[in-house]
Amino acid sequence: MEADSVRDPGTMEEKADLEMAENPFEQYIESVRQELENQDPIFIIGIIVALAVVVITFVFLKYFLSSKTVRSAVLLVGLCDAGKTLLFSRLLSGKFKRTQTSITDSSAPYRAKSDRGSTWTLIDLPGHDSLRPQYMEKFKSAARAIVFVVDSAIFQKEVRDVAEFLYFLLTDPVIIRNAPALLLACNKQDITMAKSAKLIQQQLEKELNTLRVTRSAALSSQDGSVGGSVYLGKKGKDFEFSQLPMKVEFLECSARGSKGEEGNADIDSLEKSLAKL
Ligand SMILES: Nc1nc2c(ncn2[C@@H]2O[C@H](COP(=O)(O)OP(=O)(O)OP(=O)(O)O)[C@@H](O)[C@H]2O)c(=O)[nH]1
Ligand SMILES: [Mg+2]
User: Fold this and answer.
1) Fewer CB near the terminus (10 Å): N or C of the chain?
2) What transmembrane ranges does the database entry give (predicted)?
3) Residue 225: pLDDT band by 50, 70, 90 thresholds?
């Protein structure tokens, strides 16, 4: 059997026949090439442009549709007692609710107060530091926006912890790549001692700047790797929120409201920002 298939081709014609049989596509490619050479160059350019348009449209649609359908979550994050669960209740029903520290997530559809009236999934996450990482891991890739709730009344005491949590979020490769809008809700403005959004922003920029130096030093003294995390802000410049790839807004609100449990919350600024997502 094998001896048959490797027999000596003999004459020149036999050799050519054999070559042709070995490359059945060569003949076809050659005929296409000749056909193209005979065509008008403008016609060929037209075909190439049309193909390019189809490919670009396909890639664009794939990217656009996947990012639209997957990322529809608005995450409420922040330290314990910041007011996430009360804000969750106020945004959904407007009602005041007595809360207890959360130990798991809860979610519900939220209709934004805009003409478009887009519906997002509002997700309240527990603030306890032992639970935070696992819940962030679970929801970070679905985030369209992150509402970072700060207790403005005891901000001075918590500034370091708030900055550490923000650093954790803002050096995460998934969060930086998806760049969900970051809304810093400076809550509990009904309390007289509450710090303004402007002051909170300035202090956080300062604290994050310090944190960046200490964290980078700690990493380079180990093995020089950055542990898969992203550098915060711009190298060689003091940290500012404007250096981040996402839209960042600082706003003031009060989930409790100035009239307490009976009255309405003061969350217009937050609702307006959510309407723009
Ligand atoms: N004065 C005042 N109190 C608030 C405000 N928002 C929330 N609180 C109170 O702060 C406490 C904590 O609120 P939660 O909503 O449970 O806090 P949380 O962020 O969900 O806390 P964890 O679930 O532990 O992460 C509750 O007693 C709320 O009534 C506010 O705007 N002003
Ligand atoms: Mg809670």
Assistant:
1) N
2) 42-61
3) very low
CATH code, domain with 191: 3.40.50.300
Same domain? 48 vs 143: no
Does residue 158 have its Cβ closer than 6 Å to ligand 1? Answer: no
The ligand 1 atom nearest the CA atom of 76: 19
Residue 271 Cα to ligand 1 middle (Å): 18
End-of-domain residue from the set 20, 41, 64: 64
Which amino acid residue places its CA nearest to atom 1 of ligand 1?
188
- The tally of domains found in the chain comes to 2
Atom from ligand 1 closest to the CA of residue 188:
31
In a domain, residue 166? The reply is yes
Percent of the chain with pLDDT over 70: 85
Does the residue 85 lie in any domain? yes
Task: Supply 144's token pair.
Answer: 């369209």
Ligand 1 atom nearest the C-alpha of 98 is 29
Atom of ligand 1 nearest to the CA of 127: 25
Q: Which domain holds residue 266?
A: 72-275
Q: Give the number of whichever ligand sits closest to the CA of residue 194.
A: 1
Confidence of residue 221 (pLDDT cuts 50, 70, 90): low
| Residue 2, pLDDT score | 43
- Same-domain pairing of 215 and 265: yes
Give yes or no for residue 89 CB within 6 A of ligand 1: no
Of 38-42, 56-60, 91-95, 114-118, the range with the lowest mean pLDDT is 38-42
Tell me: the pLDDT tens digits for 15-61? 555 555 557 678 888 887 888 778 778 888 888 999 999 999 988 88
